[in-house]
Specification:
It is built from two helices and nine strands. With 159 residues, the chain is α+β, with helices and mostly antiparallel strands. The strands form two sheets. Strands 1-4-3-5-6 form a five-stranded mixed sheet, with helices on one face. Helix 1 crosses helix 2 (103-113). The chain is globular, with a radius of gyration of 15 Å.
């Protein structure tokens, strides 16, 4: 289990899992090196909803994001064999307005600067969302609840 505000990177065939509740999982896979990782970040503000990106958020997230990318990609400059996917969980919207720029937007823009295409999916519901990722193969999917036997049924590649 990858804890909130941490990441795990591995070149081994293993399963990384993150329980998302008001958070996102960035799954990054370098096909050429056979390395992948999962970064689990909570939305700031504790509301369970996407929040505005502030200067403090920018600096702290960018430091962690940079370390995570280096751990997965090493010093490899090419992004041709890199796949990225952001899966996010947010509580259903309220009558309050949604922010114009969120943590998902920030990470997607940072990856785009490095020429890394990134697919995103945000699920809005009250129940938590479990994300499973196989870093060696770059496969990511939404898992069922704990103990579910249908984990491999909806497997798909990152990106």
């Amino acid at each position: 289990m990858v804890a909130p505000d941490t990441y795990h990177v591995s070149p081994e065939p293993m399963l990384l899992v993150a329980e998302l509740h008001g958070a996102l999982a960035l799954c990054l896979h370098d096909e050429e090196r056979g390395v992948g990782g999962l970064l689990h970040l909570r939305f700031k503000g504790g509301t369970g909803r996407p929040s505005d990106v502030t200067d403090n958020t920018l600096s702290s997230v960018l430091v962690v994001l940079d370390r995570f990318k280096r751990a997965v990609l090493g010093n490899s400059p090419g992004a041709d064999e890199v796949q990225a996917r952001i899966l996010a969980h947010a509580l259903p919207p309220t009558d309050e307005g949604e922010p114009s720029a969120t943590l998902v937007d920030l990470i997607k823009a940072d990856l785009a600067d490095g020429k890394i295409a990134c697919g995103t999916q945000t699920t809005r519901r009250t129940e938590a969302l479990r994300v499973c990722f196989q870093p060696f193969e770059g496969r990511v999917w939404i898992c069922g609840p704990k103990g579910s036997s249908s984990l491999a049924a909806s497997t798909r590649s990152v990106g």
